[in-house]
Amino acid sequence: MNHILLVEDDEALSRGIAMALESPACAVVRAGALSQARGHLRGGRFDLLILDINLPDGSGIDLLRTLRANADSTPAILLTANDLELDEVTGLEAGADDYITKPFSLAVLRARVGAHLRRSMPQDSGKIAAGPFVFDFEAMDFRRNGVAVELSKTEQKLLRVLVENRGHAVPRATLVDRVWTDGAAFVEENALSVTVKRLRGKLEADPAKPEYLKTVYGIGYTWAVHP
Questions:
Q1: Where are the alpha helices (DSSP H) in the chain?
Q2: Contact 58, 94 (CB under 8 A)
Q3: Residues 6+ apart with CB under 8 A from 34
Q4: Contact by Cβ (8 Å): 62, 51
Q5: 159/143 Cα distance (integer angstroms)
Q6: Helices (runs of H) and strands (runs of E) counted in the chain
Q7: What is the pLDDT of residue 183?
Q8: Minimum mean pLDDT among 62-76, 111-125, 197-211: which range?
Q9: Which residues on neighbouring strands pair with residue 67, listed in sequence order?
Q10: Model's pTM, two decimal places?
């Protein structure tokens, strides 16, 4: 699933953009100010940023400059009401990948967003490094601090969904749908909880106090992002 951070202070426009972009394959997190955006960026990983230039507490360009200075190469689209060549140049020089002037067509924005997500999509080698872990899903080789860990096929499926969406809460229903994809008409209600418990037992230093595979109460589970 792709995760987009939308930073736009116009509530109506923000809601409209989110509705236009959200789908089973794409989630949109909204922020109305730079302070909110920074909080979201600290707490999760995003595949695309959509930044309004004029915000209540600063400029989307300033946020983008900070991200690029910290080697964050997440693709970014700037939104602005200013139709001036100087503004466009300033935004692109700050590290923006695209620039859209208001008012704009949501269909055009959707097309631009889709193009950037496709362009930035890495060639999936199946290998993911996260904290003390290296997970190679193609080779089915899973290691914690260099030590091999044996995982069942179900545990592998669950782990992959979680780490590919690390930093984001994945609902229980989504996990059940993604992990038990064999067409079974019925999955026992506690199957997910049991699989999570087994996975924690194999990966966490203290399964009773998990650092990585965390419960998000009322929603589901998340693979926590650590600095």
A1: 11-21, 34-43, 60-69, 85-93, 106-120, 153-164, 172-179, 191-203
A2: no
A3: 7, 55, 57, 58, 60, 62, 63
A4: no
A5: 13
A6: 8, 14
A7: 47
A8: 111-125
A9: none
A10: 0.59
For residues 60 and 165, what is the distance between their CA atoms, to the nearest angstrom? 25
- CA-CA distance, 210 to 200, in Å (whole number)? 7
Pick the more confident residue, 128 or 33. 33
Report DSSP state, residue 226. -
Closest among 54, 50, 178 to 117, alpha carbons compared: 50
Q: Residue 51's closest CA among 108, 169, 38? A: 38
Q: Render the burial of 85-113: b for 16+ CB within 10 Å, e for the rest.
A: eebbebbeebbbbbbbeeeeeeeebeebb
CA 145 to chain centre: 25
